[in-house]
Amino acid sequence: MAKIFILVLAAVFFRSTAPARAADHRDLKIGISQYPATLHPMFGSMMAKDYILGMAQRPVTAYDANWRRVCLMCVQLPTFQNGLARKIVLKNGKKGIAATYTIKPGITWGDGVPVTAQDIVFAWQVGKNPVSGVADGDFFAKDIASVTAVGKKTFVIDFAKRDCDFASIDDFYALPAHLDQKIFEKNPAAYRHRSLYSIDPTNPGLYWGPYVIARVQPGVRLVLKRNPYWRGKKPAFDTVTVKTIENGAALAANLLSGDIDYIAGEMGLTLDQALALRHRLPAGYKTVFKPGLIYEHIDINLDSPILKDLRVRQALMYGMNRAAINASLFAGKQPVAVSFVNPLDTVYDANVKRYPYDPAKAKQLLAAAGWKEGGDGIRENKAGQKLSFTLATTAGNDERAVIEQAIQSDWQKIGVRAVIANQMPRVLFGQTLRKRSFTGGVMYAWISAPREIPKTTLYSSMIPSAKNSYSGQNYPGYSNKKADHIIDQLQTVCAPKANQDLWNALQTLYVRDLPALPLYYSVNSFFIPPWLSGIVPTGDEDPTTLWIEDWRVTS
Q1: 215 by DSSP, 3-state: which?
Q2: 241-253 pLDDT tens trace
Q3: Domains, in order of start, for the chain
Q4: Sign of the Cα pseudo-torsion (428, 431, 432, 434, in order)
Q5: Residues with Cβ within 8 Å of residue 336, at least 6 apart in sequence
Q6: Residues in a beta bridge with 423
Q7: 3 state SS of 404
Q8: Mean per-residue pLDDT for 387-400?
Q9: Pair 367, 314: CB distance under 8 Å
């Protein structure tokens, strides 16, 4: 087996002075590695945005650190047993479910206006509008026929299918109808850019969490202050400053110098940097390595004349020494990924096809696909076209840069040229992926909820395009009627064995078709200062900041 050479970028870390006394921490300073492309809760899909909004805005439901579904905005989850859910027949004759939710008492926008059911209805109007360009969320993952306000605090969702997991509406946020509804109604297609979340993000009326966003320095930092109308548990900090430092070595250096107090585990150091840092921390720091439902992969543009050939994609899989990357860079802590489903998830299928490192097999597949060895080592077809395409990831992420170089080197050995073309996260996620303007592959991670059905990422109608205002997250452009049918069934076939059979079938299809190239299952690294308690990593897509009111300063 050929050896892989990984260039490790060494960073010199300096020891910090002794941590400040607990009583000094009135402003919590958090470092993150990316700046969000938008602060609107319904546009874009970036953990940086979710992490920040977790302090200022909340979805209706979420999964906690024990992977239990809980109400954040609602009083009680609807079930058939408690009478808040009932089976219905819709006007079109389809069988559905009506679920009733009630907003918790005292929830108030930061300008003093109560959050009402109309704010939920308005959010639904934005989500269902075909020109609004909502890119993710339960508006797509679930088939919702209507959302109706029943009084000021209660709303009813009519689901168009008898969904097995109907009560979970984790990406369903309220929007401030008293501020944004007229803007939306005037021009739904332009709402994405004209919303107050875009033009006036420090307006307190946009937020109802324990904090509101008070100051914004685009690309650099955001400052949150206490929401005076918050009626929940009082948060410990007067203000929270979130500083974006896209270089990992600089992020660690800021922690050690005391310029920041805490690095967000969800959006902070890469695992190789965390392994290097843990022995240089001041006394008392708690280090937590949290495995989670994090799937690092390379999305492939299936419209590419080169990459649409399955044999080429299979060759790329066999041509990557992912096990060596895990051993050399991650000390074996980030296992090689099999499919989009994590082994920690209950629906994981361990029996699907694997792609071990096999460069000889990769070369055979490329030759069979018509790519012959070229004089410069790069394969070419009969027309003289080189087997070359771009490979992009988030600029400033040293770990991904090293992985790219390793993959680039591996592929070079089988006659494939990957041209690295990295972009800043705001551009990569806000434009390139959303508009599918990449021509080769893009490496990044999905963070999922337990048993999350991948409708927004694999369903054929979720391919972003100008026709659907670039909605959906099926960035590869994967279109398979069988996959669509399985996804539809996963929503409604609830018997445990039958449901697991469907999950197995979808994973089998995924590794057969390879709309994306699986890399590894990631681990988040939390370095918690000795004076900070209450941070409980979730390991799923719901960030720890959703429970920031539980964070406490201890002596």
Answers
A1: strand
A2: 999 998 888 999 9
A3: 25-57+209-285+529-553 (3.40.190.10), 62-175 (3.90.76.10), 294-522 (3.10.105.10)
A4: positive
A5: 322, 323, 326, 518, 519, 520
A6: 394
A7: helix
A8: 90
A9: no
